[in-house]
Amino acid sequence: MKTDVVKPKDIFYNPTRFVVPLFQRPYVWSRETQWEPLWADITRLIDVIKNHNASATHFLGAIVIQSVPTGLGDLPTWNVIDGQQRLTTLQLLLDALHSQLMNRSWTQLAGQVQALIENPSDYRFAENDQFKLWPTNRDRLAFASVMSAPEPVDCATYGRSRLGEAHKYFSESIDQWLGDDSESEKRGRMLVAGIMDRLEIASIRLDEDEDAQAIFETLNARGTPLSAADLIKNFVFQKFSGSNEQAEKAYNNYWSDFETPWWEQSITSGRIKNTRSSLFLWQWLVARTLNDFPIREVFTQFKHYVTTSANDVQTILRHIRTAADKYRSVIEASENPNGVLSRVELFSYRVGLLDSEVARPLLIWLDEPEQASIPSSERDQILAILESWFVRRSLVKASTKGSNRFIIDLLRRLSHLPADQLVQSTREYLSTNHTASGYWPDDNEVREALNDAPAYTKYRRDRLRMVFEALEDARRGYPDGNQLAMGPIVRGKGTIEHLMPQKWRKHWSAELTEEEELVRDQSLQQLGNLTLVTQKLNSKFSNGSWETKREHFLTYDDVLITKDVLNLSFDRWDESTIKQRTSLLIDQILGIWPVPSAHVGLRAEPHAAQTVSNIDVAQLVNSGWIEAGTELVPRSPKYKDRSAFISQDGRLFVDDVPFQTPSAAAYFLRGSSANGWSFWTIRDTSESLHSRRTEYIASLGEEDSETDDDSLEKPVDVSASEEHGK
Fold first, then answer.
1. Residue burial 220-252, b: 16+ Cβ < 10 Å; e: rest
2. DSSP letter for each residue of 163-213
3. Phi, then psi, of 644 in degrees rounded to 5
4. Same domain (yes/no): 216, 320
5. Residue 558 has what pLDDT?
């Protein structure tokens, strides 16, 4: 076994052939999870080389390849044991780059890249020898199609497969980045050199007689990778200049707590899990440097910070420990369900339920020594303003993309201002922002998002509960106002209850037309028909008549917003009162999380197409939201004896016939068009694919949509078009 750190040019330049064995999974990398971060890393690397560090490199990860016996004179061949996704993506990136260079007639530059994507004609002895990489059988047709497409590559023709989509993404990104000004060709030279010579890969090469499977298992299953906190600890104490006794004392005083269960707990930020200590160190470093960088770069950024800081390692350790203690104190206090919280603790609780870890650097920054002169009352005002920004954006389901950068830009702005200007500057910055990632939704947009909306199904239950907790606390005078002796409501324990039950037909019968019943079914999910109960109602009260529920709430319930319902309508509860209460609750929500007088927001650009039409079954499988092998059954009992199975690459198999989309598989059974995402349900759960995809979208912080790009897809030829992705 030989291990080297190599560049793409080292891997692909010489005539060679990398073969992905049939047992490897197909290409499953996606735009959001891999392509976009890779392209961001490349452009950031070039910027660093150009402006900061001429010798900078970027590490992409590792590959494991094994030599394959070949005849004398044949192309050297390697089996790809691990890293096939990375190698395939590099080939697609390089081919997209070559295409863009040819489009601009930069043939000399294009020739440099061509040597990395095609074997010279003199070395081709068998069909498909032109390709440096030959993927697993499921991907071969699509890969060969896009990699051999004539210039300029027609994305509409070759972009329908996942590999084609990757090629299209990189091609469009490269085209946009190169631009068309006088500096374009210079940027092209930097891009070619950056990709070929400055990306680094750990290459593990096995001889043909070595046990590749054992090595693969060791790399992927048995080892425990070092966290960012582990790497930083090793670096810091290697740099420690004192004696061994002093280093041990510093470890006990400043670091050992990071190796306790609370700090080692795995925390999900976005869709990535990190230890809490690694997450904190990233957030602390962002707050200190006011630079936006991904968490995977925290160790590199920390080394740079230590090297360029005027403070010694022990001072930095002391600074980290102080910030970490405050960080833990706020989080633990915010998790206490009982009693009054400080403004920062309440902010941490509410915004934490929105999965907004991007707010943590702000909290750390406010507690740093440089901000010690900010009065506590003004800190509270800043947090109240930002809480309104976070909650309103969550209610209208504005995109969270770019939020981290937005918060950093705000902190940069505040860092240059005197303490007495921070509140007004924060308010002005949010009010005047005109970008989708930063705008502050106004009253009209929030009202439109909540009015007539099925709030019970539209929002995650814990977030909806937080809103009702805030409504109840405001009614009790918390956190501001004439506070009642009963105290704030218990946090995180209540449940959302329907006033008119979902099974209303049994105890709420009425002479309604079919259309009126449909209106009632829609109304009962709306905000005005929901309330918060501190003890779960038994079925007698939950599904009982209005008279039964009313008596229970009068006698046993201490939730004031529920008692207010009785004042609104004591004798009856129907669609008109639900509508009236929805409007009242929206008014109260706007008052709890206000915007400046006469504030006008900016609607985010529609992004539903990006959140739905670009998310396919393969992405759900790759993201762990559905398992390969899952059995699907039609929702309609008409097809109760039929089923489909999901493969690793996201295709649906019906009677051993593969289909690229749920709708194509549904068409196969029905003989007519159908929305496959609603047609198919997961066996034993009755949950539709649409529901599972909606949950996944919600985890991204993106907006739901009922529109599917393949909802009316009709396959032309099942045996050919579905099998080969045509």
1. eeeeeeebbbbbbbeebeeebeeeeeebeebbe
2. HHHHHHHHHHHHHHHH-SSTTHHHHHHHHHHHHHHSEEEEEEEE-TTS-HH
3. -135, 155
4. no
5. 80
In a domain, 648, yes or no: yes
What does the pLDDT read at residue 684? 80
Cβ contact 526:454 at 8 Å: yes
pLDDT in tens, 479-491: 887 787 788 999 9
* Separation between Cα atoms, residue 324 and residue 457, nearest integer Å: 37
pLDDT attached to residue 483: 81
* All residues at 6 or more sequence positions from 295 whose CB lies less than 8 Å from its CB, including other chains: 228, 269, 272, 274, 278, 279, 282
**Distinct helix (H) and strand (E) counts, the chain:** 35, 16
Q: Which of 564, 592, 620 is the last residue of a domain?
A: 592
Q: Is residue 597 part of a domain?
A: no
Side-chain half-sphere exposure of 538, counting CA atoms within 13 A: 2
Q: What's the pTM value of the predicted model, to 2 decimals?
A: 0.59
Instruction: List the one residue out of 416, 304, 290, 299 whose CA is nearest residue 362.
Output: 290
- Give the model's pLDDT for residue 155: 66
H/E stretch holding 323 reads helix 313-334
Same domain, 530 and 555: yes
User: What's residue 222's pLDDT?
Assistant: 40
Q: How far is Cα 489 from Cα 302, in angstroms, rounded to an integer?
A: 42
81, 214 contact by CB (below 8 A) = no
Same domain? For 348 and 383 the reply is yes
pLDDT for the residue numbered 711: 34
Q: Both 117 and 181 in a single domain?
A: yes
Nearest to 543 by CA among 578, 502, 583, 485: 502
Whether 324 maps to a domain, the answer reads yes
* Count of structural domains within the chain: 4
In DSSP notation, 366-399 reads: HTSGGGTTS-HHHHHHHHHHHHHHHHHHHHTT--
In terms of DSSP bridges, do strands 2-6 and 17-19 run parallel, antiparallel, or are they unpaired? unpaired
In this structure, the answer to whether residues 128 and 26 fall within a common structural domain is yes
Domain that includes residue 19, residue range:
2-222
Contact 42, 199 (CB under 8 A): yes
Burial of 669 from C-beta contacts in 10 A (0-12 / 13-18 / 19+): buried
**169, two tokens:** 């993404």
Q: How far apart are CA 274 and CA 186, in angstroms?
A: 39
pLDDT under 70: residue ranges of the chain: 22-24, 155-156, 158-159, 211-226, 244, 270-271, 536-541, 570, 603-614, 698-726
* Per-residue confidence (pLDDT) for residue 221, from 0 to 100: 45
Altogether, the residues listed in the chain come to a count of 726
Answer yes or no: do 581 and 531 share one domain.
Answer: yes
Q: Are residues 67 and 208 in the same domain?
A: yes
Question: Do 586 and 496 have their domain in common?
Answer: yes
Residue 319 belongs to a domain: yes
Among 561, 592, 623, which residue terminates a domain?
592
pLDDT on residue 159: 58
In order, the DSSP letters of 273-285 are EEEHHHHHHHHHH
